[in-house]
From TrEMBL:
GO terms, molecular function: metal ion binding; ubiquitin-protein transferase activity
Pfam name, any one: MIB_HERC2
Domain MIB/HERC2: 201-279
Membrane-spanning ranges: 51-73, 79-97, 106-125, 131-152
Keyword field: Membrane, Transmembrane, Transmembrane helix
GO annotation (BP), single: protein ubiquitination
Name this protein carries in UniProt: MIB/HERC2 domain-containing protein
InterPro entries: Mib_Herc2, Mib_Herc2_sf
Domain of life, per lineage: Eukaryota
């Protein structure tokens, strides 16, 4: 019946489910689907043909090599089986080596066979162990090349990953250092814009007291309130009083004011002053 597909399907036809918008629901993919199948088949046929041609060329080269060596007297008839075994190993090595070196074109196989003939003429290999050893070397090289290539690629990928990690870490460290430098500069600018602050050092005693010594309030400061301009304010000893237990101090916050000098005790139990040391964060 029309629209239900062919009554007798050809053995080579592959049915596909009908899709919306197809050619009348005939059960086969239309348009691009056929083109994709035909293109894939063409590629597969091309690769298959190249492989067949390569095998044929290899067999022809082996026969020519055998005739050449036998005609030159290099290979006695009793060792024919050994020579054929060596040729078979050589053929297997070529087949195994082709995926690794991407040798998929028959001219390359032909060139390889020609090189083999030239090597036969040049080296004059007259002993069957030489042939067998050469075949074994080719076979082993074909078998061991793939793991080596894979290992080298893995090592290369690992090195690339390590370099990328080092680069990312260096960039992160540079960004952190830049932020820290900016913060330090901001703190320095703020510190330069503020009045200097002082911490309390050793207490002032008659032994270490001298004129010009910068001082701050001491541990026994009590009744003088903020006469020094507040905690952290500094003053300077301007002179010693008549009593060795007293000194006169001029505070920076009161410079220029009349009667700004104040007298303070510097004896045990009444350590009202300490040596001023720079304030640190």
């Amino acid at each position: 019946m029309p629209g239900t597909g062919p009554s007798h399907s050809h053995p080579n036809q592959i049915p596909f489910p009908a899709a919306g918008g197809g050619d009348g629901g005939n059960g086969y993919r239309s348009g691009g689907g056929k083109g994709d199948r035909s293109g894939g088949s063409a590629d597969a046929n091309t690769a298959h043909n190249e492989l067949l041609v390569a095998l044929m060329v290899a067999l022809v080269m082996m026969v020519l090599n055998l005739l050449l060596v036998h005609s030159l007297g290099y290979l006695p008839p009793p060792w024919l089986a050994v020579w054929l075994s060596a040729c078979a190993c050589w053929l297997v090595s070529l087949v195994l080596l082709s995926p690794l070196t991407a040798v998929t074109s028959w001219p390359v196989w032909l060139a390889a066979g020609g090189v083999g003939l030239l090597l036969t003429l040049v080296t004059h290999a007259t002993s069957w162990p030489v042939w067998l050893a050469a075949a074994c070397v080719r076979l082993l090289s074909a078998i061991t090349t793939l793991p080596v290539v894979l290992q080298l690629k893995a090592m290369q990928a690992a090195v690339v990953r390590r370099l990328q990690a080092y680069e990312a870490a260096a960039q992160q460290e540079a960004a952190d250092a830049k932020r820290a430098l900016g913060a330090a500069r901001a703190k320095l600018a703020i510190a330069r814009g503020q009045a200097p602050r002082w911490d309390a050092g050793d207490v002032v005693t008659p032994e270490n007291c001298r004129v010009g010594l910068k001082v701050v309030r001491g541990p026994d400061w009590s009744e003088w309130s903020n006469a020094d301009g507040g905690e952290g304010g500094a003053g300077t000893i301007v002179r010693k009083a008549a009593s060795p237990d007293l000194v006169c101090v001029q505070w920076e916050s009161q410079v220029g004011e009349p009667d700004s000098e104040r007298r303070y005790y510097i004896v045990p139990g009444r350590y009202q002053l300490c040596c001023a040391v720079p304030y640190t964060v």
